[in-house]
Amino acid sequence: AVSYNTLINAFLKEDNVEEAMKLYAEMVESGCKPSATTYCLFMNKYCKQGQIAKAQRLFEDIIDENLAFDAVTYNILIEGLCKAKLWDEASRLLEDMPKKGLTPDIVTYNAFICNLCEEKKVDQAMNLLEEVRSSGLIPDTVTYTALMEGLCKNGEVEEAVRLLEKMRQHGQDPSVVTYNTLLRGLLKTGKVVEAEKLFAEMVDGCYFPDARTYDIMMHGLANAGKSIETYKLLKELQLKKPMQE
RNA sequence: AACCUUAUCGCAAG
């Protein structure tokens, strides 16, 4: 079953739903029972396509067929519901988890926080951060990065930079994505010097800037009229060949 | 035990 799941997942990743469905059929035919994970793969795909109704149907199937589900099962649908701005539905599922013997984890909350940030509801997201803390869960790099992104989009870049300090104080290390998010926020608001400082700090900290980092930096520097710096960066890029995605 | 879920992706500035 795991092999089938792996294959189905591969097809879904490249948007080949047809082939994935075929495999699913083959799986059933060969007497291999689809697991909750199998359903989750499709559920996630439907969520990403905005086909929430279909995703919800699959979720119910999992329950009805008494398949062994876990927090991930919930997380996938919650993420989909949040993305579709169906907050009430999502909250309902969150409250449902304990009743099913499941404990919401950081990914569960991150789904809410990330999507709240995208909706420019950073305040609510920040409130959730406190809730997460008081519930005993540890906000992770994803949590902080999402909040930084939200703050930047909200024009609160300084606040985002402050969060970087806070996350460190709480023992969480930034990732390349974290830096990229902040660099982008700084450059978009013309804070070129700060961005350059942060970039240096990133490199000092033994982080490997990826293709996106260079993209962000070069655009930002070029926009600021710093063609020399942009050129230097380009040279550096050609020499170092950053990590591919 | 293994396979599945969340952040830099820009749907108002591009």
How would you sum up this structure, described in words?
With 245 residues, the protein is an all-alpha fold. It has 14 helices and no strands. It has helices spanning 2-13, 17-29, 36-48, 52-64, 71-83, 87-99, 106-118, 122-134, 141-153, 157-169, 176-188, 192-204, 211-223, 227-240. The protein binds one RNA strand of 14 nucleotides through helix 1, helix 3, helix 5, helix 7 and helix 9.
Element layout with pairings:
Elements lengths: L1 H12 L3 H13 L6 H13 L3 H13 L6 H13 L3 H13 L6 H13 L3 H13 L6 H13 L3 H13 L6 H13 L3 H13 L6 H13 L3 H14 L5
Helix pairs in contact: 1-2, 1-3, 3-4, 3-5, 4-5, 5-6, 5-7, 7-8, 7-9, 8-9, 9-10, 9-11, 10-11, 11-12, 11-13, 13-14
The structure holds one RNA strand of 14 nucleotides.
Strand content: under 5%
Main sheet summary: none
Mean of residue pLDDT values: 94
Quickly give the structural class: mainly alpha
Q: Count of DSSP helices?
A: 14
| Helix amount | over 70%
For the record, give the distance between the C-alpha atoms at the N and C termini, rounded to a whole number.
29 Å
Give unreliable regions as ranges: none
Q: What's the overall geometry?
A: globular
> What is the string of SSEs from the N terminus onward?
HHHHHHHHHHHHHH
Radius of gyration, whole Å:
21 Å
Q: Quick one: how many beta strands? A: 0
